[in-house]
Amino acid sequence: MNRRSLSLAIIIIIALIVALTYFVILPQIKKAETPVGTPIPQIIFNVNTSVVNGPIIDNQFGPPPNYYTNVTQGNDLKVNVTITSTGPEELVLVKSIQVWWYNPKVNLYTWYSPPNTGNDSVIQTSAFSYSSSPNPVSLQPSMSNSTIITLHIEKNAPIGQYSMYINLESEPKQTDENSRFMQLDESYWFSMIINPS
To answer: Measured between alpha carbons, how far is 120 from 34 in angstroms, rounded to an integer?
Structure first.
C-alpha cells in the first residue's frame, strides 16, 4: 500500500469516527441526560387585587379587573394583593411593579385606544415608587395570605390612565427534583387614573 492510499484510508477512518461520535454517540448521551416526560411548570397560586384607600370607577369595557382606581398626584395608593396557594408550601415575592400601558387622555370606554402616547420606561421612573409589606408572602398549601402594596405617587407624576403589572415570583420552600412545582414568575395587573393635585 503506497503512502497516498494509506493517507486516504486514515482520513476515511477519522471521518467515520467523527460521524459516529456526532450522529450516534452524542445524541444517545443527551437522550440519557434528559428526564423523560419532564413536566411543564404549573401556576401554583391565584391572585386577587383590591384597592384599600381609593375610590373605584367601574369600567365594563376593559379586561378584568373591570375597574380603575382614582389617585391624585402626591398621594399614596394602597393595593391589597391576596394570594392563594394551589400547590406546596411556598414563598411569593413581589419582584417588581411596572407600567405596561399609559395614556394621558383618560378614556373609560376602552382600554386599548387611543394607543399609548408615552414612553413607558420614562413614565415608570417619574410617576411613582412603591413598597410592599410583607414581602415575601409565606403561603401554606391551599391557604391564602395578603400583602399591601403602597404606591407613592410623585407630586409631578404625569396625569392620565395607567395599567400596571405586578410581577410575582414563587419559590417552593422544599424543592423536589421530581416535583412539577418549580420557581415561577407570574404577572397580574390593575389600573389607575392619576389626577392633578
So the answer is: 41
**What is the model's pLDDT at position 169?**
86
Q: If you ran DSSP here, which 8-state letter would residue 36 be given? A: T
Interacting residues of 48 by C-beta distance below 8 A, sequence separation 6+: 81, 82, 84
> Which pLDDT band holds residue 69 (cuts at 50, 70, 90)?
confident
Q: Are residues 49 and 14 in the same domain?
A: no
Residues 10, 180: Cα–Cα separation, whole Å: 50
Torsion angle defined by CA atoms of residues 128, 131, 136 and 138, in that order, rounded to the nearest 10 degrees: -110
Evaluate whether residue 130 is within a structural domain: yes
The pLDDT assigned to 133 comes to 93
The pLDDT, as a whole number, for residue 171 is 80
pTM above 0.70, yes or no: no
pLDDT at site 196: 94
Structural domain boundaries, residue 9: 1-34
Joined grid coordinates for residue 8: 486516504
The answer to whether 179 and 88 have CB atoms below 8 angstroms apart is yes
Mean pLDDT value of segment 52-68: 65
Q: Clarify whether residues 125 and 181 are in a common domain.
A: yes
Q: How many residues in total does the chain contain?
A: 197
List of residues 6+ apart from 181 with CB closer than 8 A: 41, 42, 44, 87, 88, 90, 172
